[in-house]
Amino acid sequence: MYPMTRKFFRGLCMLLFIVLAGSHVHAQKKYAPPSLSKPDSWSMILLPDPQSYVKFERNQPVFELMTCWIAENIDSLRIKLVMCTGDLVEQNDIINPDGIKVNQPSKKQWESVARSFSRLDGKVPYVNASGNHDYGYRSAEVRRTQYNTYFPVDKNFLTQKMIRDVALNGEGIPTMENASFEFTSPHGKKILVLNLEFAPRDTILTWAKDLVDEPRYKDHFVIALTHSYMNSNNEHIKEEKYKLKDRNYGAAIFERLIKPSKNIRMVFGGHIGKPDDPKGHIAFRTDVNAGGKKVQQMVFNAQALGGGWYGNGGDGWLRILEFTSANTVKVKTFSPLFAISPTTQQFAWRTAAYDEFEFSLD
């Protein structure tokens, strides 16, 4: 080998060593578990649609892992509430799954999601939206649902203590599908959480508007939770394919309830997804209500991550919302599934600008 060639070869080897060493250091970036940025902060946890976890028996432990992680971190993160965006199951009422797209009958799906939330019973309150898959036979052919069978008002006494107002569901039964929940934050703010059924009926939007306008709630910070609200372009959803005759999606919910209110300040939803594309599962926008206050609106889902519609159910992703005393909300996207092993902890945080950000509250 010529001297110049040997010199070039040694330089190339050294360059490759530096590149590989740098890549190794980057890949082994030290994992930091979730923590509050300020000691007086408190947090809420937002869980995405569980349907793709519960429809396969192999995926069901993943969602239970997520609620177990929440239970273990109630004190360290000062978790005061857990919210779930709906589609608790893949189908509300099937007895013959095809074994390919779904391998669990509805009874097993409902039992699984109820069992996962049982990890939080008596430890922290939770409010679950109802989604299109929670109605009808497969998906919202009618408003029949087993929601109240598996999530009755007395399932978690901590949630029951918070409940204030209840409306009738599509079958004429008072359930938590349409209900309000009240608590006071560690910073002394009175908060009312308004849970609304999938594509709420006209009567429900009227009930909700009259409720938040009542004098007893005029000074409350109101949070609305529903299922179908925005698409991944941050637009309010105008219409969908479902056959329900009396229905209101995101655009109608905003125009008839959110915008006219003076105290609804945050809205959360789920529902949307695109296989293995995080951005296809999320949305965020800010509008102003009739009281001149900002309304921060967030959609978060994960059901088609981790292998698409028939993958692992969503890679364990959830969102941590940290509320600081300075009226700032810090949003972080975290996976307890990736965090449980040193081999995968490097993937436990999603840190893109749309996954880790903060916003202010008026």
In terms of topology, how is this protein built?
Elements: H1 3-27, E1 42-47, H2 51-54, H3 60-72, E2 79-84, H4 106-118, E3 126-128, H5 147-150, H6 157-162, E4 163-168, E5 174-184, E6 190-195, H7 202-212, E7 221-225, H8 250-258, E8 264-269, E9 282-288, E10 294-300, E11 318-323, E12 328-334, H9 336-339, E13 349-350, E14 357-360
Parallel strand pairs: 1-2, 2-3, 6-7, 7-8, 8-10
Antiparallel strand pairs: 1-11, 4-5, 5-6, 9-10, 11-12, 12-13, 12-14
Helix pairs in contact: 3-4, 7-8
Query: What class, by secondary structure content?
Result: alpha/beta
CATH structural class: Alpha Beta
What is the ordering of alpha helices and beta strands? HEHHEHEHHEEEHEHEEEEEHEE
In the residues, how many domains can be counted? 1
Tally of DSSP β-strands? 14
**N- to C-terminal distance:** 72 Å
Number of helical segments with 4 or more residues: 9
* Overall spatial form: globular
Q: What is the average per-residue confidence, as pLDDT, rounded to a whole number?
A: 93
Instruction: Enumerate the spans where pLDDT stays under 50 for 5 or more consecutive residues.
Output: 1-9, 11-27
Alpha-carbon Rg, integer: 22 Å
Give the helix level as a range of percent.
Answer: 10-25%
